[in-house]
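Deliverable D5.2: sample structural annotation.
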Amino acid sequence: MDYFATLNQQQRKAVFSTSPYVRIIAGAGSGKTRVLVLRLVHLIKDIGLAPHRLCAITFTNKAAKEMNQRLSEYLGDQGSGVWLSTIHSLCVRILREDITHLQYPKNFTICDSEDQRSILKEAYKEHAVDQKQYSYPYMLSYISNNKGAEISPSRAMEMAGNYEVDKLKAKVYDYYETRLQKMYALDFDDLLLFVVRLFRLVPDVLKKWQGRFDTICVDEFQDVDHIQYEIITKLAGKENELYVVGDPDQT
């Protein structure tokens, strides 16, 4: 079966590129995700790479499911060997193996939205915060933004200075983080941050995970933030192929 017969010239160039670093820039509806899937097919069928040596990252469960279905159509059961998932799911797999290096158990809890709201309810009671003033979604966004910028609760308190409003939010943030730590629980931001911390602090763990793969493929690369970018580039290292697909107009 010729999997590549319907590709146009530009798509064929992208699928069969021999460069170790490839960036595909294409607009919506141009078939860029299909190109990425066929790149994986090419690496397995033509180049002979083992499926488990390929890592493909996307950013929604829906996209991951669709890509897995396409791989299955082309490769059958062989396609299931590819490490294809959202970046958060990949981070969970990494942490289940190696989070003990950060003094957390492998059976850590993943905190969902209900857990987060429950913790905030406790924090609001502890610090007399009015939910009408700061809704739970607002406070969770504040916490997430701080985590994304790698600002700890203590640093948030320093930055608040003499502004009582900002100090109050920092106190809630501190309560939230302390509560998670006591439960050995991670929220979705932590899944990424703990992998970054792991890769920064334990070079042997980073080297192990770099050695797991020959190729790192990333769909919707325009959605990558700086924390995700660090994870992806560290996994690729200097030896692995990095193949990214994105549409800057969708950022």
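Annotation notes: The chain has a mean pLDDT of 94. The two ends are 37 Å apart (CA to CA).
The annotation will be released with the project's public dataset once the embargo ends.
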